[in-house]
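Lab notebook, bench 4. The sequencing result for the construct came back, and we need a structural model before the next group meeting so we can plan mutations. Quick request posted to the team channel:

Model the 3D structure of this chain.
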Amino acid sequence: MAESLERTLAGESMHLLAERALFWPSRKRLFIADLHLGKADIFRRFGIALPSGGTRHDLSRIASMVERTGATSVWVLGDFLHGAIDSAQWRVGWEAFRGAHSALEVGVLAGNHDRALVRAGLDLLLLGDAVEDGPFSLRHMPDPRAPGHVLCGHVHPTVKIEGFPGRWPAFWLQANTCVLPAFSAFTGGRTPETMQGDRLVACLHGQVLAL
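Done. Here's the predicted structure in token form:
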């Protein structure tokens, strides 16, 4: 196992990172999916006990990856938000992150939880529902009709691994699609229905494991 795994997707060298992100070296761009900022706040509001600090932890993971890879942009493949834009707790963490990384471009594709982003004032590049970027079609959900190799999220793929209790986030590599694991720790997941030729790469204990 290692902290990252290099794979060629649509002719491009891409790095699958154990932090549940995909790095495109030729663009100096990180892709993550399903950040779900504010989800823990909503759970606590409804009486579901979750530890605080989830937003700060997730943003510190992004900061660490930016520093290590030299990325100049981070693009979120949908579900940047989860809930109201006026929650003070996660906004404080986000604004501190942006203040510390003001030169970093943060782009967001619209996900099913992102309807409020237009008026959120979060210093984001709003990319719309679909982007064609080089050989890639960037989407929130898998899209078999897309013209390029799809990079997406939404599915939250997870796997069970013998000898490691629980379920683990995973990249799901298909012939024309790469589904990223959910970046946020506060997400559920499901085991993908794989077909012949599909590959899963699990993220566990800061390492990636090709299955």
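The CA atoms of residues 40 and 52 lie 8 Å apart.
Will bring this to the meeting.
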